[in-house]
Design a protein that fits this description.
Blueprint (H helix, E strand, L loop, with lengths): L8 H26 L6 H25 L6
């Protein structure tokens, strides 16, 4: 018999909210930096990768909240 660990749904929802705010902030920052001529492409790519990582983490956390494992 497989035992699934219990999760604190309210803590997960709180973390999702934090990450969604970070994702939104990164999106705005990337948009502003992309408009600046001569911006450091390496920094822009780093921010885009961070934004993708945050989005992936949000998706994984949302999957934890689904009772059947499907989002």
């Amino acid at each position: 018999m497989e035992v699934t660990p219990t999760i604190d749904a309210s803590a997960v929802r709180g973390r999702i909210a934090e990450l969604e705010a970070e994702h939104h902030g990164l999106n705005g920052l990337i948009g502003k930096l992309a408009e600046i001529p001569g911006v450091n492409d390496f920094e822009l790519q780093r921010l885009k990768k961070r934004k993708l990582k945050v989005k992936d983490t949000i998706i994984l956390l949302k999957l934890q909240l689904e009772p059947d494992g499907h989002a």
